[in-house]
User: Fold this.
Amino acid sequence: MKFQNYIGGKWVDGASGAIYHSVNPANEEIVGEVAQAEVADVDSAVEAASAAFHSWRLTPAPRRGEILYRAGQVLKDRKEELAQLLTREMGKVIAEARGDAQEAIDMAFYMGGEGRRLLGYTAPVEMPNKFGMAVREPIGVCAIITPWNFPIAVPSWKIFPALVAGNTIVYKPSPETPILGIEFVRVFEDAGLPPGVINVITAPSVEVGQALVRHPKVRVISFTGSTKTGTAIAAEAGKFGKKVALEMGGKNAITVLDDANFDLAVEAILWSAFGTTGQRCTACSRLIVQKGIAPKLKEALTERTRVLRLGDGLLPSTDVGPLINRPALDKVHKYAGIGQAEGARLLIGGKIHSATGRGFFYEPTLFDNVTANMRIAQEEIFGPMLSIIEVASLEEAVEVNNNCNYGLSSSIFTENVNAAFRAMRDLSTGIVYINHGTTGAEIQFPFGGTRGTGNGHRDAGQAGLEVFTEWKSIYVDYSGRLQRAQIDTDAILGNAN
Assistant:
C-alpha cells in the first residue's frame, strides 16, 4: 500500500515521484510504500500553511478547541488500529503502543479545553482611568519535527497546542515511522480541520529537514530527537531569529537507597531500563545503588533480566521488542564492547539476539563495576543497556546523578521522607520521581529537561502553549488625556514640587 504526503488539504506524491519503504523492525518486512517529499514539496507545504494562517488565526479559539475534541474522538475510535500499526512500524510491544495512542487522546481533550481558556492575565496599572492586560497570540507557521520512538504521543504534545493557539503546521515525522505520521494527520482531516492548517511531508533525506528549518515563512520549530540534530537546528534557526524548542537526549538514573522497597524498585528498574527496548528519552540507563543493598539488587536484576522474552511486539508473550533498525543495533553492540574495554563487568546480555534470523533484537544487558565517568555512564546509548554504579550515601548519589551532560528524568527509591525531600530539591533534572522509575509522563505537566536535554522550553501542560504563542501587552487609557507612566507617577501621588 502506498502512502502520500498531505499538502493544502490534498494527498499528493512528492515532486519527483520517488518512494521509500517503511520496514517492520521485528521481521524486516515492508509495512508500506511512502511518497518521498523533496525540497520543492517543503515550499508547497509551507505556502499552504501560510495561506491558511489568517483564517485559522481568526477562527474563535473555542471553535478550534471543538475540532481538537473531534480529533480526540477519532483517535479514540481508531486506538487499536493505530496501536497495531505502531507496533508493526516501530516495534514496541502492543500494550505500550496502546499507551502511546492513549497519550494522544488525552492530549487532544486537554488542549481542546484550552480553546475556552488560553489564559492571559490582567494586573493593576500605575495611572488612573487606565486598563492593562496581557494576551496570547499565535505566531504563524510551525515546523513540527518528531522522532520514531513515540510516533503518536510526541507529535500530539506539539501539534495540539500549536493548533488550539491558532498556528498552522508543517509536520515532518521520522522517516522510520512515516506511516504513523500520515495516519495521525488523517485523523485531523477526518475531524474537519480546514485545508492547509496541517500538512505532512515525509522524507528520509536531510535536505528536506534543512529546507524546512531554513524556510523564511516558518517562524517556530519544535523538535524532539538527537542532541546532534537538535543543536544543529538551533544553530541554523538562530541565524534567522526563529523560535526553537528542543527536547533531546537523556542519560537518566534511578537511585536506590538501602531502605528502599526492594520488590518495587526491582519492578521499576526493569520497566524503566528495558521497556520500549530502552528506546525512550526517559529510559533508565544508570542505576545508582547504595552499597548496602547493591549485592541483593544486582542478583535480583540479573535473574529477572535473564527470563525476559524477546520477540515481535504483537505477540502477547513478548516482553522486549526489537530496536528500530540495523544502525541502532550496531550502536548498542558497540557500547557493549566499550563498557568491557573500560573495565565494567558484564553481568548478562551484551549480545545481538539472532534466534529468528530476522529483525533487530538485542539481549537486555547489565553492567556492574561501572564508574560515573565511564562512557557507558555518560553517553546516550538508546537501547536495553543498564550501568550499575555503587555509592555510599544519598549525597554521593545526587552528585553522580547530576554529573551528566543530560538532565531529563531522575528517580529515587527510599522510605525516608527526609531523603525523599532532599532528593526532590537537589536532583537537577526536569522530571523527578519518588518511588517510581524514570519513565512515564502525564500530559497536564511540563515535559523536558535541563542541560543538554533541551533549551529551556517544555512540551505538554500549560508550558506547552509557551512555545506556540507570543505575549501581547495591551493598554487602554480612558482618561481622555496624555498620561505618562513612571514620569507622571509623582504628580498622581501628590508629591510634585
Observations:
- The mean pLDDT is 96.
- The chain has 16 helices and 24 strands.
